[in-house]
């Protein structure tokens, strides 16, 4: 053994940051979460709070697991932590890009006030070069930070060899096109989670849905009704208001009304898949969905109703094994391969 036993991954988002301790063969040992993200940098005007949060989580992982920094082979960071509001700004790669391109794009930086070891920052991905962007072709541009690692991890788990549409529902739902080699061709983003947050807590329909997200499985009758009203009228605003009308004159059941609203909101995601120039060619391919529930299951239901896809699968991920970390480990393995390093524990 070379004494390098562990890898640490940092997954930095808008509202929180997670740090994971892994063995080199891909098993999670421990993790930490802090409710600090790049939004705090935007509010404070500096990233000191984010630096402190990451530093404290790293120290906690090392000390409480009784390991030393000498046994850590590498520390990786992905997500919004690589943006201008994170720890180190790294430009997006331009699609298409796979594990090899991401491995080549990693930038290693020593931030002594955060970590005693250099941190390997993984770039995000954008659909195209932005210099020629205008209002006429604005819809062709999109970008992601962090979801690229999740998508790479998911594709590795589910097998490559054929094109796939990867959908990661959340505050910002990412719909990512991948070719048969597992390269990411770009993405389309919708604000699904944020819309639900605003509508369920800060709008006139909040009372009808119990001032919160749908809990558990939806009422399928109301879910499909909300979806079809949004689809047929072409008016999301009108359909959202129909949630209140439904609660006043059809049913005051919170689950039913929340299902109606969820169907209306998710019609936007289905419409994005159908209308996107990037995703148009993937409507006959397999769909892999992973992320927050009930968004995953409901979106799968709506896509199956729509038809035209080879297979729609909801991927249940182990809570303690993040897809982003799996993707990061693939990138680390690629960098070792490129540098001619053979890892003793995997015999590769």
Give Rg in angstroms. 21 Å
Distance N to C terminus: 14 Å
Question: How large is the count of helical segments?
Answer: 10
The overall pLDDT average reads: 92
Major sheet attributes: 6 strands, mixed
- The residue ranges in which pLDDT falls below 50 over 5 or more consecutive positions are 344-348
Residue share in helix: 25-40%
General shape: globular
Main β-sheet, spatial strand arrangement: 3-2-1-4-7-6
Secondary-structure blueprint:
Layout: E1 6-12, E2 17-23, E3 28-34, H1 38-44, H2 48-64, E4 72-79, E5 93-94, H3 99-105, E6 107-109, E7 119-121, E8 125-126, E9 143-144, H4 147-158, E10 164-168, E11 173-178, E12 184-190, H5 192-202, H6 220-233, H7 236-249, H8 254-275, E13 286-289, H9 295-306, E14 311-314, H10 323-338
Parallel strand pairs: 1-4, 4-7, 5-8, 10-13, 13-14
Antiparallel strand pairs: 1-2, 2-3, 6-7, 8-9, 10-11, 11-12
Helix pairs in contact: 3-10, 4-10, 5-8, 6-7, 6-8, 7-8, 8-9
Give your account of this protein's structure.
This protein is of the alpha/beta class and about 350 residues long. About 40% of the residues lie in helices and about 20% in strands. α5 runs antiparallel to α8 and α6 packs across α8. The chain is globular and about 65 Å long. The two termini are about 15 Å apart.
